[in-house]
Amino acid sequence: MFANLGIAVTKFVAFLLTASSSMLAELVHSLADTSNQLLLLLGGRRAKRAATPEHPFGYGRER
């Protein structure tokens, strides 16, 4: 995740230096990859919660 974030920052700097529309598109793609990884981490944490009376089989399906 941090590597993708670093790549996004690098592409942002390259976009600022070149004003290239393709660099802007690549920046958006890298940000989408980073946010996807954040959502996967959040889902993994939520899936590890213990079972409750409302969810007797746990939260594994939230993943």
From TrEMBL:
InterPro entries: Cation_efflux_TM, Cation_efflux_TMD_sf, SLC30A9. Coiled coil: none annotated. It is a multi-pass membrane protein. The keyword Protease does not apply. It is found in: Membrane. Keywords: Membrane, Signal, Transmembrane, Transmembrane helix, Transport. Pfam families: Cation_efflux. Residues 2-61 form the Cation efflux protein transmembrane domain. Residues 1-25 form the signal peptide. This is Cation transporter. It comes from Actinophytocola gossypii.
